Amino acid sequence: MNERKARGVNYIESLGKWGATFCYQQKKELIGKYDTFEDALVARLNREKEVYSKIDNIYKRQRLLLHMTQKEVAKKAGICEMTYVNFERGKSKIMEENLKKIAEVLGLDK
Known about the structure:
- The protein is an alpha+beta fold.
- The protein is about 50% helix and about 20% strand.
- The chain has 2 domains: about 1-50, Up-down Bundle (Single alpha-helices involved in coiled-coils or other helix-helix interfaces); about 65-110, no CATH class.
- A 3-stranded antiparallel beta sheet has the order 1-2-3, covered by helices on one side.
């Protein structure tokens, strides 16, 4: 039955439902169980957007509190400026190793 594939969406044979899950920081969260693949996928994508937008806001808020520009943060973290700009705007995800570097620069690693 689960011929359709999407990260965090799977068919639960015993329930006859589609499950939506989200993993973040090595924790798996069950978002819910849905009648259709499409409903489960929408729920999964909405949760992903919600989590990442909160993360982006934390980094932006801290950067502003430190009176730093995006360019300064990127340079100190050793990453491309546009990578950081797009991350902060929520337009792209960022690799975990770069996220750790940015956290260090902004003092969020403690």
